[in-house]
Write a structure and sequence with these properties.
The protein has 249 residues and is an alpha/beta fold. It has a single domain, classed as Alpha-Beta Complex (sialyltransferase cstii, chain A). It is built from 11 helices and 9 strands. The radius of gyration is 17 Å and the shape is globular.
Length: 249
């Protein structure tokens, strides 16, 4: 949906894709993120901006959201807020079975059709190509997270650079307050996400390791070190943070 228009918007642009990993709170990446032509955030990522601009930047040009309006998932979709914050595109992903074996050309059954119709008429609205998403999930043998799917959706278009930051495959927790209002605390929530079968983190990490050679891809120093690991191990993560701090990013 809207592929040609979306491509025109992205063409020859530098793009920052900002995930919700907690390690971003330890670095001041805001100016670097803001320097990109387009800033992409995920699910509830916009809720963090006002109090954390020095860490994660101040703009949101594209929001990828699963559209399941629950605190555990995409959070509330406030259309007026999206317009007031000058969000240019609202993007989402198709529905897939938890094991990734079946992907469908429609949205998750928990997505409210009435909200989708309003979004379609109020904002530029894009749904990732369901066949490409199906191939990705088949390769992962699970369902890609919204943010992980966004990487490979964006790479379908003629952007100049995709700078990825704030992705840890849940080696650490969520950025503080990203899951505000959830029954689980964020640390436990992230630990459960790390062990998830539905969104298999090891398979997603391994897939990105094997498919990171697109010359448009650029990773922040923490994610770059994660992709050098021999295994995805939470006990190794703190050493990565200290190593990156030592080189004064």
């Amino acid at each position: 949906m809207n592929n040609k228009k979306f491509n025109s918007y992205l063409k020859n642009k530098t793009v920052a894709l900002v995930g919700p990993a907690n390690y971003l709170s330890e670095f001041e990446m805001g100016d670097l993120i803001n320097s990109k032509d387009i800033v992409v955030r995920l699910n509830r990522g916009m809720e963090l901006v006002e109090s954390n601009k020095k860490h994660i930047g101040s703009r949101t040009d594209i929001l990828y959201n699963c559209l399941i309006e629950h605190p555990d998932n995409g959070g509330e979709i406030n259309i007026k807020n999206l317009i007031d914050k000058n969000v240019q595109w609202l993007c989402t992903i198709p529905y897939s079975s938890p094991d990734g074996k079946k992907t469908y050309p429609f949205l998750h059954p928990k997505v409210k059709l009435s909200k989708v119709i309003k979004l379609f008429f109020k904002l530029n609205f894009h749904i990732s190509d369901w066949k490409n998403y199906a191939l990705l999930n088949k390769s992962l043998a699970s369902r890609a997270n919204t943010g992980f799917a966004a990487i490979f959706d964006l790479l379908q278009y003629d952007l100049k650079e995709l700078y990825i930051t704030g992705f840890s495959f849940y080696l650490d927790s969520f950025f503080k307050d990203y899951k505000k209002g959830c029954q689980r605390n964020e640390k436990i929530f992230a630990e459960q996400c790390f062990k998830s079968v539905r969104h298999n983190q090891n398979n997603q990490w391994d897939y990105l390791k094997k498919n990171k050679n697109d010359n448009r891809l650029n990773f922040d120093p923490v994610l770059m070190e994660i992709l050098k690991l021999d295994r995805l191990d939470r006990e190794l993560f703190r050493a990565i943070i200290e190593k990156v701090k030592d080189i004064n990013i």
